[in-house]
C-alpha cells in the first residue's frame, strides 16, 4: 500500500486499521476452513399465520458453530463473506441445505410447509442464480412455490434493471420473492410496483414500539394497505409480545415471525415444536 503516504513518510494506514485488516483476513481464512469442516449450521425460525393459525413454514438463518467461540450469528461473518465473494459458496450451501431440510419435513408429514432463504447482494447479482435455484429445487424434488427468496429493499435497488430481470426469471420459475426489512430502504413506489414480489416483510423497527407509538402503527397500517393494493402478502418480523401479535393481526398482517411465536432453532427442535 503505497498510497496515502503521510507528511513524514508514515502511512495513514494506522496500527488499528492494520490489526483489524489482519483480523479480517484471519476470520476469512477461518471461515473458508469452517465451510470445509462442516461447521456452518442452519437454524429455522417459524412463520405463523397472523390469525392464530399454525406454522406455514420456516426461514433459514445461517450460524457458525465455531470450535472455540461457540455459535456465531450471521452478522459476525456475512459481511466478510460478502466482501470476499465467499458468500457465493456459502449461499449455495445454505440453499441446498435448506431445500434438503424442507424435503425431509415434507416426507415427515408436513408436505405444505415452505422455506424462506435470504439472499445477499452479491448472490443476487450473480449470473448463476437462476440456474442454481432451478437445479437445487430439482435435486430435492421440490415444487418452486415452496421456496421464498428474501431480498432486502437495498439489495434489489442496487442495479434496478438487472434486479428486475432476475426477479422476473425467478417468479416465472414459480419461486416466491419476499422484500425483507421493508421500510428501512429507499425504494420508490414506482419501483415497488414494477417488482414481481409476492411478499412484503415489515422491518422489526416498526414493530418494536407498535403499541406505544401511534406513528409506527400508522406506518404498519399504510404498508398493509400498500401491500394489499399490490396483492402482496404481508409479514411482520420481530414480534416479541402477545400485544404486538394481536395488534398486527388487527392491522391486517397475514403472517408473523418473532421470538414471541418462535425463536430460530435447529431442525430437530423446529420439528418438535411443531408437533
Ligand atoms: P433477517 O433476514 O431480517 O432475519 C431476521 C433476524 O431477526 C434474524 O437474526 C432473527 O434471528 C432475528 N429475529 C427474529 N425474531 C426476532 C425477534 O422477535 N426479536 C429480535 N430482536 N430479533 C428477531 P439473525 O439470524 O442474526 O440474522 C440476521 C441477518 O443475517 C438476517 O436478517 C439476514 O439478513 C442475514 N442472514 C441470515 N442468514 C443468512 C443467509 O443464509 N444468507 C444471507 N445472505 N444472509 C443471511
Ligand atoms: Mg430474512
Ligand atoms: Mg428481516
Ligand atoms: Mg434484518
Automatic annotation (TrEMBL):
It comes from the Bacteria. Residues 24-275 form the EAL domain. This is Bifunctional diguanylate cyclase/phosphodiesterase. It comes from Stenotrophomonas aracearum.
Amino acid at each position: 500500500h503505497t498510497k496515502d503516504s503521510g507528511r513524514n513518510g508514515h502511512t495513514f494506514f494506522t496500527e488499528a486499521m492494520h490489526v483489524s485488516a489482519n483480523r479480517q483476513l484471519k476470520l476469512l481464512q477461518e471461515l473458508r476452513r469452517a465451510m470445509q469442516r462442516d461447521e456452518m449450521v442452519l437454524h429455522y425460525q417459524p412463520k405463523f399465520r397472523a390469525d392464530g393459525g399454525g406454522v406455514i413454514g420456516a426461514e433459514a438463518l445461517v450460524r457458525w458453530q465455531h470450535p472455540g467461540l461457540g455459535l456465531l450469528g450471521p452478522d459476525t461473518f456475512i459481511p466478510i463473506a460478502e466482501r470476499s465473494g465467499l458468500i457465493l459458496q456459502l449461499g449455495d450451501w445454505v440453499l441446498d441445505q435448506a431445500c434438503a431440510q424442507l424435503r425431509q419435513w415434507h416426507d415427515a408429514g408436513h408436505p405444505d410447509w415452505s422455506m424462506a432463504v435470504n439472499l445477499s447482494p452479491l448472490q443476487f447479482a450473480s449470473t448463476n442464480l437462476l440456474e442454481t435455484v432451478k437445479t437445487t429445487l430439482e435435486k430435492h424434488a421440490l415444487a418452486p412455490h415452496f421456496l421464498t427468496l428474501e431480498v432486502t429493499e437495498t439489495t434489489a435497488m442496487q442495479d434496478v434493471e438487472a434486479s428486475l430481470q432476475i426477479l422476473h426469471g425467478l417468479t416465472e420459475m414459480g419461486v416466491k420473492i419476499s422484500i425483507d426489512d421493508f421500510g428501512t430502504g429507499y425504494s420508490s413506489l414506482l419501483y415497488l410496483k414494477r417488482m414481481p414480489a409476492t411478499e412484503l416483510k415489515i422491518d422489526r423497527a416498526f414493530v418494536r414500539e407498535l403499541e406505544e407509538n401511534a406513528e409506527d402503527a400508522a406506518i404498519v397500517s399504510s404498508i398493509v394497505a400498500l401491500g394489499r393494493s399490490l396483492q402482496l402478502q404481508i409479514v411482520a418480523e420481530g414480534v416479541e409480545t402477545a400485544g404486538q401479535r394481536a395488534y398486527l393481526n388487527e392491522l391486517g398482517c397475514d403472517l408473523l415471525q418473532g421470538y414471541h411465536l418462535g425463536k430460530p432453532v435447529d431442525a430437530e427442535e423446529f420439528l418438535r415444536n411443531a408437533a
